[in-house]
Amino acid sequence: MADHHMTASYKERLARNRMGLWLFIISDAFVFIGLFVARVVLLPGQRPHLEQGLGLVVTTMLLVSSFFMNRAETELAHGNRAGFMRGTLITLVLGTIFLIGVVGIEWQIAPFGPADGAQGAIFYAMTGFHAFHVLTGVIFLAIVWNNGRKGHYSAEEHWAVEACAVYWHFIDVVWIFFYPALYLMGTPVL
Amino acid sequence: MNLLSLGLVHGLIAQIAGTIFGMALVMFFRVVAGLPAWEREPVFVGGAIVGAIAFMIGVGALNDWFKWARGEKTSDDISPDPDKPNWTRFFSVDYDHKVIGIQYGVTSVLLLGFGGIFAMLFRLELAEAGITILNSDIFELILGYSGPHLYNSLMSLHGIVMIASILLGVGAMSNYLVPMLIGANDMAFPRLNAFAFWINVPGAIILLSSLFLGGFDTGWVGYPPLSLRAPLGMQMFLLGVYIVGLSSISGAINVIVTVFRLRAPGMTMMRMPIFAWAALATAFIQLTATQLIGLSFQLTMLERLLGMGFFTPDVGGDPILYQHLFWFYSHPAVYVFILPGLGVISELLPVFTRKPLFGYRWVAYSSMGIALVGFFVWAHHMFSSGMSPYLRIPFMYATLLVAIPTGVKFFSWVGTLWRGKITTPTPMLFVLGSIVIFLMGGVTGPPLGTIATDLHLHDTWYVVGHFHDTMFGGYVFPFFAAIYYWFPKMTGRKYDERLGKLHFWLMFPAFMVMTLGQIFLGMLGMRRRVADYDPALGFDPTQLLITIAGFAIFISVIIALYNLIRSARKGEVAVGNVWNSRSPEWQIPNPAPLHNYAHPFHVVGQPYDYGLQDAPYVDMDPAGTPAHS
């Protein structure tokens, strides 16, 4: 408690930053809870008509990416910079594939548009809000990767990497709820 | 001093340029997508969004973050540039929490002025039956519309601009006071703090621009389906509120981390000045609930722009869903508005009664209790909405539960006043006024929380009267109390006591007339949000009386502003502990120096042990304190 700012130690700053990030994530989670509630209310017992194979592929990509994100952070904490850079890059690529899969393919091949009733509204809103978060996460990863390339971050001091990892896992956890909500729950809308 | 070097000017120029660029960008994408380039709504919305981002870049609120993203280090020294005059700090990005607090406060009062002018306009209209003033050609000339739609737009804007003003006022109090009260030199995240203030400026501009883009007639609640059919002004309302909401959320993160991690040595949670508890409870609500109004407004924007059927029944949407999402924020939001004010009442009462705050621990818990219960009451706004009837009962009981923690506060205030050595300078007058008015708000509340009576009173002026009671008692009066009380700390000068008392003795009775008139008309069945009424109903004299009272309140605020502006420049110099307070911020010079406390103080006792011998609260100069690591 109670270090006086200006001169606050790295440890104290880290504690403040962690608390701030978790508060942000709690706050952000409410958006997704709201979308989830909207989905349950507007499409009770139903789900949008979607391409199951593609959904499985993009979901796998995102889940696997979280594994490499964790690897990246752990490697850095153990002083392995090459492993950190490799993990970050793989996460970045998998995240980008996820984005292409959802926005680039699923949005194009879906048999309905955003203006086509509740399923259109729900599907494009849920994937859109989530994809926006994935996009910001990918940008965050690119920043971390670029700064890592310049030699920033050490095994002891790498708050930006930790923040990026926590944020990325959060995006992943959201999708763990959104994937079944969009692809598995209920019967397809005719 | 070159005006062009001010951050605010940079920001405004960037916002104009950004808006034009954003409009062009949307038109470009529309052409690429094979659509006609010009369609008013998407082009304006795109312009407004890019304009707001451009403002933040132009004002310089994002500079340090951009540097971090590029891997550059930034200075932690927040000392102002000594070559620039001090006043320029208030018009540029500054990381000092006291500067940011005053920036919040001044912007809040500015919006209070706008909201007040809107109210005066439609109060003139209501003074007698028939559409009179608002049919004037001058409105048609300036705004392109007049009559009942103008009434609706002014009424809606009055509501939302006042809410924005209150949120900024809450930010002013939290930012200026919390670090000083808990012995910190600044907030936990100074850059985020500056961001949270400056984002309000483009937000407020977009919000006010709705008046010139056709207005909107939904009231501040923006219910669909009406909000889906309203003019373009609706979009500016939705977007403006969304942007102001970003400020609430980022400000809340800052307050919570500051309270948890930056307290002075020895200051346990139960030894904090009570306002810090109020600010903490407020921040928890802002942190979480704000996202839901943001979501509901975004979904409405998307439905208008892309035809996504969230809230229109004939394409599978549900308007009740909007109301649930909206009120999940907007009921707790009223506790955001009042909790800091109630904290000010509890903070000031011991000073002016020279007694300990009665039941400190319970007052602290009651703020948390109100915040918590506030999350389970939202559907009491929807008893007549057509939602499932079985939902009404639990929401009724949850609503009435709010009276318990609120009652704790009243009990504490009465207990603190009891046999105190009461003095009544202006801040104390406003505190006492707050208690009386907030009690009226509390007493008029249960009939609205109870289903049977609410079905009769719903959407009448009774609700308007009740709401103004809670807002004036819970925010307006305490806010003025706080301004007068900490004015010497902010400016180093004293306000004019006679003008301060005049402000109170004009505002208090005028408010009583206004609110009792509103409640009276509501019980007779006068509907709210209606521009006109049948002269046969006999409402004219009461409406005229309310209008006169409204203008008296308006004049009293002008007197207050005159007093504050004049005293800030020419007032008597205020030396030392003006109110003989135990609180740490009064143990340092006026105005508070740059980093607040030269060295950390130690908390050695209870904050409100007034009248007790040898029971100090803080040790400002703990002997032998080692240099801080």
Explain this structure.
The complex is a heterodimer of chains A (190) and B (629). Helices cover 77% and strands 2% of the residues of chain A. Chain A has 5 helices and 2 strands, in the order αβααααβ. Chain B is mostly helical. Chain B has 2 domains: 1-69 and 88-93, no CATH class; 94-587, Cytochrome C Oxidase, Chain A (Up-down Bundle). Chain B is built from 21 helices and 2 strands. A two-stranded antiparallel ribbon of chain B has the order 1-2. At the A-B interface, α1 and α4 of A face α10, α11 and α12 of B.
Q: Based on CA inertia axes, which overall geometry of chain A fits? A: elongated
> Can you give the mean pLDDT of chain B?
93
Helical content band of chain A: over 70%
Q: What would you call the quaternary organization?
A: heterodimer
| SSE series of chain A | HEHHHHE
Low-pLDDT sequence parts of chain B: none
Rg of chain B is: 25 Å
